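Task: sequence design from structure.
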């Protein structure tokens, strides 16, 4: 039996949780996504995207899709943070983000990311934000 649930995140987009009955986190908590940052990036891909939520398991692997394309690298930074690097996209536009755990649980963020051809990289991170803390030891290719 499948559970289907839709929620709104920050009023900007919604996501759907698909899970087999009995599937979930080892601590019994429900896997959730609260935010995706940044919400846009270059067509060339390889941009770091931080997916924040709760109950990401460090003992599981995750696959992240931006539209039909699989993220280049994915890492669980901690139970509240998943890091993914965007794949290359063939055209501009809004895509859904799907996060699939090895346990079969899939979360979909509808309209979670926008590919833009003219977007340029910032030379420095926004004030108050740090790029440190990612070890890369659990990156999956």
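Answer:
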């Amino acid at each position: 039996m499948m559970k289907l649930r839709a929620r709104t995140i920050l009023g900007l987009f919604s996501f759907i949780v698909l899970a087999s009955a009995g599937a979930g986190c080892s601590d019994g908590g429900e896997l959730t996504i609260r935010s995706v940052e940044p919400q846009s990036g270059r067509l060339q891909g390889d941009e770091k995207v931080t997916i924040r939520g709760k109950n990401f398991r460090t003992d599981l692997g995750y696959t992240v899709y931006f539209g039909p394309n699989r993220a280049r690298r994915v890492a669980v930074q901690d139970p509240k943070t998943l890091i993914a690097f965007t794949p290359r996209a063939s055209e501009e536009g809004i895509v859904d983000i799907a996060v699939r755990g090895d346990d079969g649980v899939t979360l979909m963020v509808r309209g979670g990311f926008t590919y833009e051809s003219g977007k340029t990289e910032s030379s420095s991170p926004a004030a108050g934000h740090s790029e440190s803390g990612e070890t890369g030891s659990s990156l999956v290719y």
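DSSP finds no helices and eleven strands in the chain.
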